[in-house]
Design brief:
Blueprint (H helix, E strand, L loop, with lengths): L1 H21 L2 H6 L1 E6 L8 E3 L4 E3 L1 H13 L2 E6 L5 H6 L5 E2 L13 E9 L1 E6 L15 E5 L4 H12 L9 E5 L2 H9 L5 E5 L3 H7 L4 E4 L6 E8 L3 H17 L1 H8 L11 E2 L4
Parallel strand pairs: 1-4, 1-5, 8-9, 8-10
Antiparallel strand pairs: 2-3, 5-12, 6-12, 6-13, 7-10, 7-11
Helix pairs in contact: 1-8, 3-8, 3-9
Length: 273
């Protein structure tokens, strides 16, 4: 037994030492990495209501990543709109908060892509006349205006509603996914859109309340963001994240949150369109 365990342990220690050595000197000296998070997107990022502590897939991944890097992690809650600017001005070292990797954001952020999902339409279970995306032509659909999803809904509508002689979907920008859900429950929206990874969680938390409409309308990558001015850190994180994928740490965390369907086998960079 020892002959099996000791080499494995040594290999892990050597790998961790290698990743720590690759970190920028400023982070090694500080011994801490600051991560921006907006805890309002379960099961990716949210607060445990019983303890008021941060939890979710990103929190578990971030804690495991920091351990792998040989530093502590400091979570800093912020507004979504301030994450990219805070990264550029070095208020944060990384963004780890369910952020979609997009070409526009890549102008100032390097993304280490660790999860794949996509925008998915859903409605209330009681809306018996709405059972597939095409049923939403002429209906009002809400989603966070901070994302690319309003434009994606409009593009989908143009191809699947207007091109077929049906009325266009009326797109309504909301203050976030929670706001869209509230408007849906209030009857101000006919349907809403958010990441496919979150809808099963919502359905488990609010039984018989929501139902998905079809599958995700496109594929998107969720990325951990690093400033483009810090390539050393991006490379070290990509190496550490891939090691977590390879040794099963990553898979165990995804399984805990029932998000295995979004797993990646190869950690890529800047794959968003």
């Amino acid at each position: 037994m020892k002959k099996i365990l000791i080499p494995s342990l040594l290999a892990g220690l050597i790998a961790s030492a290698s990743v720590f050595a690759a970190l920028p000197a400023s982070l090694k000296d500080k011994g801490e990495i600051t991560a921006a998070i907006v805890p309002n997107y379960p099961p990716m990022d949210f607060k445990d209501t019983s303890t008021n502590t941060l939890t979710g897939l990103d929190v578990d991944l971030g804690n495991a990543l920091a351990e792998r890097l040989g530093v502590k992690i400091k979570w800093q809650e912020t507004a979504f709109e301030q994450m990219v600017s805070g990264l550029v001005t070095k208020r944060f070292d990384i963004i780890l908060s369910g952020m979609t990797d997009t070409a526009e954001r890549q102008k100032s952020v390097t993304f280490i892509d660790y999860f794949a999902s996509g925008p998915q339409l859903y409605t209330l279970t009681k809306n018996a006349d709405l059972n597939e995306p095409a049923d939403l032509c002429g209906k009002k659909v809400g989603t966070s205006r901070r994302t690319t999803w309003p434009a994606e809904i409009a593009a989908w509508s143009k191809e699947n509603c207007e091109a077929k002689g049906k009325p266009a979907i009326i797109v309504s920008g909301s203050e976030g996914s929670a706001d869209a859900r509230a408007q849906l429950r209030q009857g101000r929206l006919d349907a809403a859109m958010q990441g496919s990874e979150t809808i099963p969680y919502l359905m488990s938390q609010e039984k018989d309340t929501y139902k998905p409409l079809g599958l995700a309308i496109s594929k998107q990558f969720t990325g951990l963001g690093v400033s483009k001015s810090n390539p050393e850190l991006a490379a070290a994180i990509a190496e550490a994240m891939q090691a977590m994928v390879d040794d099963g740490t990553y898979g165990k965390i995804l399984k805990k949150w029932e998000l295995e369907q979004g797993a990646v086998t190869k950690v890529g960079m800047n794959q968003g369109q």
